[in-house]
Amino acid sequence: MFKRILPEELDKNVFNAVGRQWMLITAKKADGSFNTMTASWGGMGVLWNKNVFFCFVRPQRYTHEFTEESNEITLSFFEEEYRDTLKICGSKSGRDCDKIAETGLTPINDNGIVYFEQAETVICGRKIYTDTIKESGFVDIDPSQWYKGDFHTVYICEIKQILKK
Ligand SMILES: Cc1cc2nc3c(=O)[nH]c(=O)nc-3n(C[C@H](O)[C@H](O)[C@H](O)COP(=O)(O)O)c2cc1C
Predict the structure, then answer these.
(1) pLDDT below 70 — which residues of the chain?
(2) What's the CA gap between 74 and 43, in Å, rounded?
(3) Fewer beta carbons under 10 A from the terminal one: N or C of the chain?
């Protein structure tokens, strides 16, 4: 059972959670379809006096269609036993396969947002700012090591609720 906690009660180290544990970014279209993908870049903090998370989705991801259409994005975090699930969701595209069938994940539809029963923590956000990474913005690092024209879309989302098992 999930219980709602305050952002101040979240006891996650963001570097471990995002960079090592990884997360699923999930969004749902108005027609009810949704997609999810693994991400290990992103973060959380405070901006414009709001608690926010930010995540980065390349335009060629199928998930991008969903994060573009929806104003709601969820981040789902899992225990280590779900590493293979995260590997599948990070290597296969929802365009080509049914990730839910392949992983056995159980989606929960909750007032227009989707997250997963198996998650240990879910952070639900509402977009407040989006932009595209720009080549001209790079200082002292070479973007060509990261991009071949496929600059990430950045989503900054106000944290609306955090659910923890
Ligand atoms: C550990 C890991 C981290 C990833 N992080 C990101 C990320 O932050 N942003 C991104 O656009 N893709 C990231 N990816 C790649 C997508 O998860 C991958 O391309 C996925 O198959 C996209 O699925 P989709 O086409 O169904 O959206 C990551 C993959 C892995 C394995």
Answers:
(1) none
(2) 13
(3) N
Protein residue closest via CA to atom 17 of ligand 1: 90
Q: Burial, 105: exposed, middle or buried (Cβ in 10 Å; 0-12, 13-18, 19+)?
A: buried
CA of 90 to the centre of ligand 1 (A): 5
Domain 3-164 has CATH 2.30.110.10: yes
- Computed on alpha carbons and rounded to an integer, the radius of gyration of the chain in Å comes to 15
Residue 119 CB partners (closer than 8 Å, separation 6+): 24, 76, 77, 78, 163, 165
For position 112, what pLDDT does the model report? Answer: 87
Measured from CB, residues less than 6 Å from any atom of ligand 1 are 22, 35, 37-41, 56-58, 61-63, 90-95
Q: Taking a C-beta distance cutoff of 8 angstroms, is the pair 112, 72 a contact?
A: yes
Task: Give me the pLDDT at residue 155, please.
Answer: 98
Query: How far, in Å, is the centroid of ligand 1 from the Cα of 56?
Result: 9
Q: What is the pLDDT of residue 164?
A: 98
Q: Which sequence spans correspond to the domains of the chain?
A: 3-164
Residue type, 85: T
Closest atom of ligand 1 to 92 CA is: 21
- Predicted local confidence at residue 35, as pLDDT: 98
